[in-house]
Design a protein that fits this description.
434 residues, mainly alpha, 17 helices, membrane, transmembrane helix, DUF2029 domain-containing protein, transmembrane
Length: 434
């Protein structure tokens, strides 16, 4: 009897994570049904409504293969794994969308189980509005799956998972651009920990080889199909990706609907820069004084490095636009890993939360809300808008310490679901910019 009793918590723990995911799916289905019945959601995913934005480029690769133009936008800027998998399965637009949803939910549940996420945090992260891209024929679900594999490979020291994850990411997106600096920084911090030099170098070298192999495979494929091995690089200039100095105030073509999410992604990127600078300073200090470097898990360091690379890439390559910042940071497992790591840290004092709130309100000046005006808003309206965004951020940071934790968590969760469905509805109608 005692052995049976001891096994019950383990069984409950194991199945709690998929049960929370199923509960989330049921709540989302009920909400979209109600909003559609009342006319607040006007369009549901279908073979016609899903044919929007970049889906047309992926579908073009799926049906006719790659094409390259030296003077205009072309599908050679996109990576092959999603369209080729789509072709292999023979699914339609609805079918590949259902495949993406299933792949994402399975990957997220596995990640939540491995990280032992609290149930409320699991629900909050599952409701992230940027996850609307998991419901459409985009690369987000595949990318999420392979990033989950590489991060859990790091966490559990499974080298094969790490290699397969990096290779899959490199065939899904231009991951080497963001991953190579992150990988090198992770190896630097990891190697400084006692007895970890050989392990860090082994994982670093094999990781670089996997990224190089993915780039080589894409280049070979495009060379054989369009005669230009670097089409995916050369095509970027026609998509507005060129190196320029950051311009301020920054703008967001997505409009006011998505601005708060992209702005919060900038906040996370800036926080990641601060964390990486702190780790680098301790690394330099340990080299000079022969001290041990703080033992930060490599998957956390890699996640921080990725956020830094995304925010710098967008600021320097999108001419002052933060378009897609939230999508590239929040619709990834890196957010989940960082949120789980923060949840394990000691509780903050309320003075620290006040300092974070004040610094965040200063950060919003990147949009020119104090001195240069903001969109069609007055200064007071802009302060109210960004004040609400700051309060939303603080709720995530302080959810463990809130007096009415359950109630506030569920309020944010429902708000997130409504915004997710609002974004999806707009995307399906073709009027919400990505």
């Amino acid at each position: 009897m005692s052995e049976f009793s001891a096994s019950v918590p383990a069984v409950v723990t194991r199945y709690r994570y998929p049960l929370v995911t199923v509960l989330h799916l049921l709540l989302l289905t009920a909400l979209v049904s109600a909003l559609y019945a009342f006319g607040l959601v006007q369009v549901l995913p279908s073979e016609s409504s899903l044919r929007q934005w970049d889906v047309n480029w992926y579908d073009q690769i799926r049906t006719t293969g790659y094409a390259y133009s030296a003077t205009a936008t072309s599908n050679s800027a996109f990576f092959p794994l999603l369209p080729y998998l789509w072709r292999f399965t023979g699914l339609g637009l609805v079918g590949i969308s259902l495949f993406n949803v299933s792949l994402f939910l399975s990957s997220f549940t596995w990640l939540a189980y491995q990280l032992r996420l609290p149930a409320r945090l699991q629900l909050l992260l599952l409701s992230t509005p940027s996850l609307m891209f998991m419901i459409v024929p985009y690369t987000e679900a595949l990318f999420f799956c392979f990033v989950t594999l590489l991060l859990l490979g790091l966490r559990r020291r499974q080298l094969s998972w790490w290699l397969l994850g990096l290779l899959g990411c490199g065939l899904t997106r231009s991951a080497s651009t963001m991953f190579t600096p992150s990988l090198l920084f992770m190896v630097l911090i990891w190697a400084a920990q006692p007895g970890q030099l050989r392990t860090a170098l082994t994982w670093g070298v094999t990781g670089l080889l996997a990224l190089a192999a993915s780039v080589g495979m894409v280049a070979t494929l495009q060379w054989k199909t369009i005669g230009e091995p670097w089409g995916f690089v050369l095509a970027q200039k026609h998509w507005g990706h060129k190196l320029t100095l950051p311009k301020f105030p920054v703008v967001d073509p997505s409009g006011i609907d998505m601005l708060w999410l992209d702005g919060l992604a900038v906040w996370l990127g800036m926080a990641a820069i601060g964390c990486c600078c702190w780790l680098a300073w301790h690394w330099l200090k340990s080299r000079r004084q022969r001290l041990d470097t703080p033992s930060t898990p490599p998957e956390v360091v890699f996640s921080l490095g990725y956020c830094v690379c995304v925010v710098l890439f967008i600021l320097f390559f999108q001419s002052g636009s933060i378009w897609n910042m939230g999508r590239y940071i929040f619709a990834t497992p890196f957010l989940v890993v960082l949120a789980a790591s923060l949840a394990r840290q000691p509780a903050w004092s309320w003075r620290r939360y006040a300092q974070v709130a004040a610094a965040t309100m200063v950060l919003w000046q990147i949009f020119g809300i104090y001195t240069q005006g903001f969109d069609n808003f007055s200064t007071s309206q802009a302060l109210w808008y960004f004040g609400l965004a700051t309060a939303y951020l603080l709720t995530y940071l302080a959810w463990r310490q809130l007096r009415w934790q359950r109630e506030i968590t569920m309020m944010v969760y429902v708000f997130n679901l409504i915004m997710l469905l609002h974004f999806l509805d707009g995307w399906l109608q073709g009027y919400v910019v990505q």
